[in-house]
């Protein structure tokens, strides 16, 4: 990296280098090197018929079955209580309740 007298970064141009801050042209040859990094994240897919979630005796609003899985997720700001989600064991309907 090369810098101008004003402290700005010199970037390559057809006639040499140009300062990003003041726009001053210099005869210096500046080589550009761009590094591209691919950030690939692995996605974990869990395919299981029986989730390892706690169960409760909550009535499903769709089929009126009395057993459901439940979990908590912080869907709003941190000073608000978390949202409780339920999933019926029979019909797999999912619903939520705000505390």
What's this model, at a glance?
This protein has 99 residues and is mainly β. The protein has strands at 10-13, 16-19, 25-26, 55-56, 68-73, 83-88, 94-98. It starts with 9 loop residues before the first strand and ends with a strand.
Walkthrough of the structure:
- It is a single chain.
- The protein has strands at 10-13, 16-19, 25-26, 55-56, 68-73, 83-88, 94-98.
- It is mainly beta and 99 residues long.
- The chain has two domains: 1-34; 55-98, N-terminal domain of TfIIb.
- The radius of gyration is 29 Å and the shape is rod-shaped.
- The two termini are 56 Å apart.
Give the SSE layout.
Blueprint: E1 10-13, E2 16-19, E3 25-26, E4 55-56, E5 68-73, E6 83-88, E7 94-98
Antiparallel strand pairs: 1-2, 2-3, 4-5, 5-6, 6-7
Lateral arrangement of strands in the main beta sheet: 4-5-6-7
**Coarse shape:** rod-shaped
Low-confidence stretches: none
For the biggest sheet, the summary is: 4 strands, antiparallel
* Extended strand count: 7
**What is the succession of H and E elements?**
EEEEEEE
Q: Roughly what fraction of the amino acids lie in strands? A: 25-35%
Corresponding CATH architecture of the largest domain: Single Sheet
What is the CA-based Rg, rounded? Answer: 29 Å
Helix coverage percent: under 10%
Arithmetic mean pLDDT? 81
Helix count, per DSSP?
Answer: 0
The CATH class label of the largest domain is Mainly Beta
CATH topology of the largest domain: N-terminal domain of TfIIb
Count up the domains.
2
Oligomer: single chain
Please identify the structural class as seen in this structure: mainly beta
Q: Give the terminus-to-terminus CA distance.
A: 56 Å
């Amino acid at each position: 990296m090369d810098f101008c007298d004003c402290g700005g970064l010199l970037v390559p141009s057809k006639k040499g280098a140009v300062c990003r801050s003041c726009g001053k042209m210099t005869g210096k040859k500046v080589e550009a090197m761009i590094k591209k990094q691919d950030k690939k994240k692995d996605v974990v897919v869990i395919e299981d018929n029986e989730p390892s979630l706690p169960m409760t005796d909550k009535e499903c609003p769709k089929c009126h079955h009395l057993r459901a899985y439940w979990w908590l997720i912080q869907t709003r700001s941190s000073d608000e209580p978390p949202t409780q989600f339920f999933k019926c064991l029979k019909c797999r309907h999912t619903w939520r309740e705000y505390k």
